[in-house]
Every structure is written in structure tokens, then in C-alpha cells.
Amino acid sequence: MSEILKRILLVEDDEKIAFVAVMVLEEFGGFKVRHCDSGQKALECFDAFAPQLVLLDVMMPGMDGPETLRNLLQNPNAQHVPVVFLTAKAQKHEQKAYFDTGAVGVIVKPFDPMALSDQVRSYWHADGEAEAR
Q1: How confident is the model at residue 133 (pLDDT cuts 50, 70, 90)?
Q2: SS3 of 69, please?
Q3: What is the pLDDT of residues 16-43, one digit of tens each?
């Protein structure tokens, strides 16, 4: 991807995790972050915010992360936006299921706040390299 990653949609129902993630991504990563606390809200704000990457919690009440991703992929504007799951459920078979759903990466909770921006950038660059092939 030749463009620079600027806008991230964070979908996370845990307010403490969301607070830390937004703070480090904005303050240290220099990103503009929109936080949604549910999959439904993420679907509703997606087009207006036009994120370049989505960080998506797996376990949420109502619509979980994989279901949110399946719904996002119904939106033509979301089909080429990389999605990275945030989860404590990260065994190999679980991660395979996330990739099968369409995710480009998995960041395991608890994540290192100081490494989060770099992890996100690495998935952004890896997705761009995959598109260039």
C-alpha cells in the first residue's frame, strides 16, 4: 500500500482496553482512531469514517467479531480494508478460523501498549505487500 495509514476503526466493548488502545494509537502512533463499542455501531459508522484498517475485538455481546467482519464484507467500501482481530482467544485453530473469516492478522490480548502501533503498521504493510503481488 503506497498510502500512509492514518484512520483506524477500533471495535472493542471493554472500555478500559479501548481507552488504552485509543490513547496509544493516537498519542504514540499518530493515528486518528474512531472507537465503537459494538459490531452494530461499527457497521453504522464505517462509511462516514472511511477507516483504512479495522481493529476488531473477537468476543463482544450481540454481534461478535467474526460476525461483524462477515457483515462488513457485505459493504463494497469495506471489502479491501484490512481487519486485525484483537483477542485473548488465540490458539492456532482459533487464529486459523479468524484468517478464514478474512482477517489479515491477530493481536493477542493483553497486548503491549507500547508495541501496538508498530504491530498495526506491520499488518498494514504486510497487507499492502500481499495486494502488490
Answers
A1: very low
A2: helix
A3: 999 999 999 999 999 999 999 999 999 9
**For the chain, how far is it from start to end, CA to CA, in angstroms?**
11
What is the C-alpha to C-alpha distance for residues 133 and 130, in angstroms, rounded to an integer?
5
Please say whether the beta carbons of 56 and 86 come within 8 A. yes
Residue with cell 484483537: 86
CA distance 103 to 105: 6
The SS3 of residue 67 is: helix
Burial of 78 (0-12, 13-18, 19+ CB in 10 A): buried
Per residue in 95-119, pLDDT (tens digit) is: 899 999 999 999 999 999 999 999 9
124, 51 Cβ separation under 8 angstroms:
no
> Into which CATH architecture does domain 7-132 fall?
3-Layer(aba) Sandwich (3.40)
- Written as nine digits, the cell of 17 is 482496553
DSSP string of 13-54? S-HHHHHHHHHHHHHTT--EEEEESSHHHHHHHHHHH--SEE
